[in-house]
Structures are given as structure tokens and as C-alpha cells.
Design brief:
By secondary structure, the chain is mostly beta strands. It is globular, with a radius of gyration of 19 Å. The chain has a single domain, classed as Beta Barrel (Lipocalin). Strands 2-3-4-5-6-7-8-10-11-12-13-14 form a twelve-stranded antiparallel barrel. A two-stranded antiparallel ribbon has the order 1-9. Helix content is about 0%, strand content about 60%.
């Protein structure tokens, strides 16, 4: 196989949440690069979409479902690689489910996911190889005082897509949440910044920016709403 390609990740949310239901969607654009056998490097300009729904009960139990898809067209391949795959379409996607528990000063979720990854290679007739499928663990957690600051970490715990032999994303960072804003920043396999304005429970717009390098980046607009499903204990 060729060199390990870079992963392009979509982060929705994991962190302190109020009792009830949270739902969020996002749409954006970006670029990612991946390589297959014979060291093919494909440079893809992509559009992305993702959604997540999460419930927290009054006793702290949480359950979450995430999904995402990224599709784009190969803009170029490594110079000298034959055949040139420019103009071919690439589509990938992933879905995850997790359950967990949240306390006042921390929480954790565990689960699993399934992803369809970018084709490992293309034939001389420009027909992609069978789309590989991958099952992976998913985990996330946070600890701190949300009104001031909290530490968070996640391993494949958000909607994401990745090429065939890339590793699921792993991030650590710091966050803050209040009555009017949620902010998170992280770094490990690149840098990310995410902010959500709590204008109204049914209208919470935000941004999600991720940068790995010049060929692997994404910018997205997000929209979240929350609904109170339970009476406080």
C-alpha cells in the first residue's frame, strides 16, 4: 500500500448538554487528499453534510446517533501517476451510535460506528474498486466546570469520513459553555475551532472550521435546536 493518507473529519457535538433533545445539522465544503496502492494521490474538492440527534434524561443517561457524508470530484492526481483520475467522483459516509452518562462536572459516551470509505484504487478503465466498509469503536468524554472551562477528548465520536487506510480521528481540547454560547477548540491530528450562538432554543447557528494542512481542510455552517422533553427532577 501507499503512504497513510490524511483523514477529513466532521465534528458535531459532544460536551455538556441540558436535559432534553439536541439535534444539529451542518453543511460545508473543503478539500481532502488520499492515496491508494502504487502511491496514487488523489486531491478531492468536496461538499459535506452531517446530522446528529442526542437525548439526555433527567438522571444523566445520554444516547446519540450521528451520520455524515462527503462527496466530491478528483481535481488532480500526483504528477506522473497513470492513469490520471481527474474528474472522477468520490463519495464516502459514516454513521455512529453511542450511549453514556453525564454528571455536573463530566461525562462519557461509548459506542460503535460503520463507515464506507473512499476507494483504495481505480482501474485503468476509471472504474473504482469496491467501496470498503469499516467497523470501529467510538468514545468521547469531558471533565471540568462548563461555565468556566472543560477538557474534552474524542476518538471517532463524531460524523466523519476517511480514506481506506486512514485512522479514525482522535482529538483533545478545551471548551466553554454558557447560556448564550458554546465554544470548543482542539488539536491533535490538526486544528479545529467550533462556536455555536444560543440565540433561541430553536435557533442556534454556528461555525465549524477544521484544518489539517493545505490539502485537508473543511469549513461548515451548523444549526442546532434543543427541546425540553422531561421535567426537572
Amino acid at each position: 500500500m501507499g503512504k497513510t493518507p490524511r483523514a477529513l473529519a466532521l465534528l458535531l457535538f459532544f460536551g455538556p448538554m441540558t436535559t432534553g433533545l439536541e439535534a444539529e445539522g451542518q453543511g460545508g465544503f473543503g478539500n481532502f487528499q488520499y492515496g491508494g496502492c502504487a502511491s496514487q494521490d488523489y486531491n478531492v474538492r468536496a461538499l459535506s453534510a452531517a446530522a446528529a440527534i442526542r437525548v439526555k434524561t433527567p438522571v444523566g443517561f445520554t444516547a446519540e446517533l450521528d451520520g455524515s457524508t462527503v462527496g466530491g470530484r478528483v481535481r488532480s492526481t500526483r504528477t506522473g501517476v497513470s492513469p490520471d483520475m481527474s474528474g472522477l467522483d468520490v463519495q464516502t459516509g459514516a454513521g455512529m451510535a453511542r450511549i453514556g452518562w453525564q454528571w455536573r462536572y463530566g461525562g462519557a459516551e461509548l459506542g460503535a460506528g460503520l463507515a464506507s470509505t473512499a476507494p483504495d484504487s481505480y482501474s485503468q478503465s476509471h472504474i473504482p474498486a469496491a467501496t470498503p466498509m469499516r467497523i470501529f469503536p467510538s468514545a468521547s468524554g469531558w471533565v471540568g466546570i462548563p461555565d468556566y472551562a472543560y477538557l474534552w477528548g474524542s476518538f471517532a465520536a463524531e460524523p466523519f469520513v476517511f480514506p481506506d487506510n486512514a485512522r479514525p480521528p482522535f482529538f483533545v481540547g478545551i471548551g466553554h459553555t454558557s447560556e448564550w454560547i458554546d465554544i470548543r477548540a482542539g488539536y491533535l491530528l490538526g486544528a479545529l475551532f467550533r462556536a455555536t450562538l444560543k440565540v433561541d432554543p430553536l435557533f442556534q447557528p454556528g461555525i465549524d472550521v477544521r484544518y489539517l494542512d493545505a490539502r485537508n481542510w473543511q469549513a461548515a455552517l451548523t444549526l442546532r435546536f434543543t427541546v425540553a422533553l422531561f421535567d426537572a427532577p
